[in-house]
Design brief:
mainly alpha, 216 residues, transmembrane
Length: 216
């Protein structure tokens, strides 16, 4: 039988150890980060990893679309993902745009920390405020948009019956109808993949530079 009290004590001890390490390191930024009441107190590098995974999730749209049963063809603009431009892609594009924008905010904050190290309390507080805004926007709005896009594509794997039932329930609204934007499944998937790779490379660079500064 697991003792919940012991688990809570261990978590509190770990948090206290992290704060103690931050104080000993002399990093005002990390001291304030670990003391903030937020769901996203993780290091910038961790959040950039999550954002790269969100972008990577959109690359799944291509193989999922290729696996659509033949019965779905009457609901999609084209069986060829290189030319198919369903409306639901717009939702994925919005999600990718939000994640990319917020990733740039996080990267900018990290570069500011590197250039102006060590930060005073006012600078550290300002950077953390930007990071909080970027995190909630990325994993709330961006993550939700990307998640819904993938779910819609998974619906297509259920075949024409599944898509037809959804369309009927939504009074004829077909998420796979042509968007008219020209954005294809291949373009969004490949663009997201490239974005994921670039973000991972930037993350690696920042990880090395930030470790040189304060070991985090």
């Amino acid at each position: 039988m697991t003792d919940d009290t012991d688990d809570t004590d261990d978590t509190d001890d770990d948090a206290a150890d992290d704060i103690t390490s931050a104080i000993l390191s002399g990093s005002m930024y990390d001291q304030l980060r670990l003391q903030r009441r937020t769901y996203f107190s993780q290091p910038t590098i961790t959040k950039l990893t999550w954002q790269s995974l969100l972008l990577g999730g959109l690359t799944l749209l291509l193989p999922i679309y290729l696996l659509f049963p033949a019965t779905v063809r009457e609901y999609v603009p084209s069986a060829d993902p290189a030319t198919a431009s369903p409306k639901v892609l717009i939702l994925g594009l919005v999600g990718a745009g939000v994640v990319t924008f917020t990733a740039l905010l996080l990267v900018g904050g990290a570069l500011y920390r590197i250039r102006n190290h060590p930060l005073d309390e006012t600078e550290a507080q300002a950077i953390l405020n930007v990071e909080d805004f970027a995190s909630y926007l990325a994993f709330g709005t961006g993550g939700l948009a990307i998640g819904l896009t993938v779910v819609y594509f998974l619906l297509g794997l259920g075949g024409g019956a599944a898509v037809g039932s959804y369309v009927q329930a939504m009074d004829g609204v077909n998420p796979f109808a042509s968007s008219g934007t020209g954005l294809s499944v291949v373009q969004l998937a490949v663009g997201s993949f490239l974005g994921c790779i670039v973000l991972l490379m930037i993350r690696l660079y920042l990880k090395l530079r930030l470790f040189e500064l304060d070991g985090v």
